[in-house]
Amino acid sequence: MSDREADPGLFGPDSVTWQMHGDPMMWVAGVRALYLQALHPRAVRGVIQNSDFRRDAWGRLLRTADFVGTITYGTTAAAERAGARVRRIHTLLGATDPATGERYGVDEPGLLLWVHCAEVGSYLDVARRSGLALSDAQADRYLDEQREAARLVGLDPAGVPASVVELAAYFDRVRPELSAGPEAKDVDDFLRRPPINPLLVPARELLWRRVAALAYNALPPYAHELYGRPAPAPERVTHQLIATGNLLRSIPSRMRWQLPPGHILKAMARLGPDARPAPYKLRSQEAILDGPGRAQLSDGGDSTRWRNPG
Length: 310
Description:
The structure is a single chain. By secondary structure, the protein is mainly α. 60% of the residues lie in helices and 3% in strands. The protein has 16 helices and four strands. It has helices at 16-20, 26-37, 41-50, 53-73, 76-91, 109-129, 136-145, 147-152, 164-174, 182-192, 201-217, 221-227, 234-249, 253-256, 263-271, 279-289, and strands at 94-96, 103-105, 296-297, 306-307. The strands form two sheets. Strands 1-2 form a two-stranded antiparallel ribbon. Strands 3-4 form a two-stranded antiparallel ribbon. A hairpin with an 8-residue loop joins strand 3 (296-297) and strand 4. The protein is globular and about 55 Å long.
């Protein structure tokens, strides 16, 4: 099969999603998403009551990464199968509100929407604050593209935020529902000090705690307030994100992509070497979408407050 005939998947190499999800800062963003998702009591209760989170949190994180990698870089058929599997599992799971005894499904549209928005919002916020060259138009395009991911888990794309402005409005609407209940505290405790083999404790202290702290610090101010810890200065966090992004991006991409399950290398084998995600491709797209210049952060604390220079 020629490169032209090969299936590019749901998004393809010309999408913002394809370029952005290949950035190593997505791992930091993924942890930020876990912190944020845990602040919705009904959503996090569904996780805690249907899995041994403390025993299998690593597996859950890796399965989420595998799902994102599959729907981003896999074939259309592989993405649809992954989505069908998630929807099927969700239909079998429910949770109980301990205060009222109410039983509800984890596939409630409102809960699925929260998980989706917290995830893509975290990806976008960390990517931009860490220095990835995403313009305002590209940020909107990314969120619009991600409605396909929302469709895969069972949401109607028409009701999913398709721009930075719509996403900010969604978070404003949902904030009264958020709190740091016992389940959120469990997630917080785990992410700050996950149980591991005693031989790996030094690595946890040296590496993981720094990643988790940076992800937590990158949360919006209201999340810090709910967790009950002072919010760090946004400008300082942005500088930390930029420094970390520069460090991780200095690691040769071929080395990073060797980590299993190797979605990007498989996509390049299918579509050809020109399909490799690379930051310069975002800059090329930006010239078409948004004119010359790079998006810049105006206040360091909110991904809705970006502007183009000039």
